[in-house]
Amino acid sequence: xxxxxxxxxxxxxxxxxxxLFWRRDGRRELVVAYLTVNIGVLGVTLALANSEIGxxxxxxxxxxxxxxxxxxxxLAQREVAYYFAALALGLLGGLAITxxxxxxxxxxxxxxxxxxxxxxxVAPRTATQEILLDRAHADPVAxxxxxxxxxxxxxxxxxxxxxxxxxDTTLVRVRYVPGTPRVAAAPTTLTEAAR
Length: 195
Hints:
This protein is 56% helix and 16% strand. The chain has helices at 3-24, 28-49, 55-66, 77-94, 100-117, 140-151, 190-194; strands at residues 127-133, 153-164, 169-181. It has 2 domains: 3-117, no CATH class; 127-194, 2-Layer Sandwich (Alpha-Beta Plaits).
């Protein structure tokens, strides 16, 4: 067992969870999940490294851990990235990597990748919402302009979930930058904006 690697894992985990995720997101339930996953993977990896169990079982256990999903709530892709980073740090902390500097470097690279990739200057925060429009839009350009006018926000992406020509409605998933008015302030309700 490499005590410096375990300590490095705990430091990297603290930076990842409390230095990055908590300050940028603040979802308490995910903080608990990230801490638990990391420590669990670290413990399993250390136990497997010090036993006669083959590497195949260890990889199988890691595969099982990596596909666990919370069925009650869908995670955003950035939250999945933090989840994977916590898994990777735990695995790196429990493996006997030689030379030692390589393990430290890989941990630092994981934390740095998340820090840069999730920085607001690199990837501004966006929000996603499903909106039922009161007309059927077959033209994507006109539909985007209509949604931007309704919301008063800069729409980054729009995808049609359901186009109903009989009822003259369109259900869309809209990704937009919150708080960046496009033309005017956002209307208080969609029905008010449709008037």
